[in-house]
Amino acid sequence: MAFVNLKKKEIQVKIVYYGPGRGGKTTNLEYIYGRFSDRIKTEMVTIKTHGDRTLFFDFLPFDIGKIKGYDVKIQLYTVPGQVKYNATRRLVLRGVDGIVFVADSMAVRKEKNILSLKNLEENLSAYKKDLGQVPLVLQYNKRDLAEQGIPLLSYETLEHTLNARLKAAAFEASALTGKNVVATMKKIIALTMASLEKQLT
Ligand SMILES: Nc1nc2c(ncn2[C@@H]2O[C@H](COP(=O)(O)OP(=O)(O)OP(=O)(O)O)[C@@H](O)[C@H]2O)c(=O)[nH]1
Ligand SMILES: [Mg+2]
To answer: Is residue 94 within 8 Å of 5, Cβ to Cβ?
Structure first.
């Protein structure tokens, strides 16, 4: 359940971008920040990076207005995708309300996507949460690389390997060009808010 401040009539909604290292999680948040910088009053926070690798997390907060008299504050987070940072990944998942799984479409990353999704399920189970129950959107990122002749997993293969059981909403995207980045975000916010509204009533 999201953090509800009854006194301030405010709800904090936590959405986590999860996925394998170098898949494009941070790039998603950077694109969103760039697109909506006029509406996002606070700065995007990047807690420690080494080169362009996330060592801790990224954090992007913004307001989306009122629902049932409550001010809704969306907080987007990314986890560090590198295998060795699992303790941090698990910590960032604490209190999560919705998840975007950013898969890397590159054919060479097929196994990494599968392992990362499995790791997500394991880490959620530490909080007694089931991936089938948490609002979830899959994003098949880096579709733009097809133009450079880089072998990509087809949409069908990605659906089959990652989404056969979950049957979550899925978007083909490019965090670099911005294709479907906002659509992905809008979908996860809509699913998460619908789920929270149910819990609030
Ligand atoms: N061509 C292309 N490159 C991308 C895309 N998304 C991300 N990248 C590049 O892939 C690299 C890794 O992207 P990040 O956003 O840092 O990946 P991450 O998932 O945050 O990685 P970790 O922080 O290590 O977990 C960067 O060089 C990005 O510019 C995309 O859609 N297309
Ligand atoms: Mg990152």
So the answer is: no
Residues of the chain with pLDDT under 50: none
Structure tokens at 148: 């450079």
Pocket of ligand 1 (CB under 6 A): 19, 21-27, 52-54, 78, 80-82, 141-142, 144-145, 174-176
Ligand 1 centroid, distance to 131 Cα (angstroms): 24
149 C-beta neighbours (distance < 10 Å), count: 7
Question: Is this structure's pTM higher than 0.85?
Answer: yes
99: closest CA among 112, 83, 116? Answer: 116
Give CA–CA dist 15/28, Å, rounded: 13
Residues flanking ion ligand 2, Cβ below 5 Å: 25-26, 54
Please report the pLDDT score of residue 201 as a whole number. Answer: 66
Ligand 1 atom closest to the CA of 27, numbered from 1: 15
- Candidates 11, 20, 24; CA nearest to 145 is 24
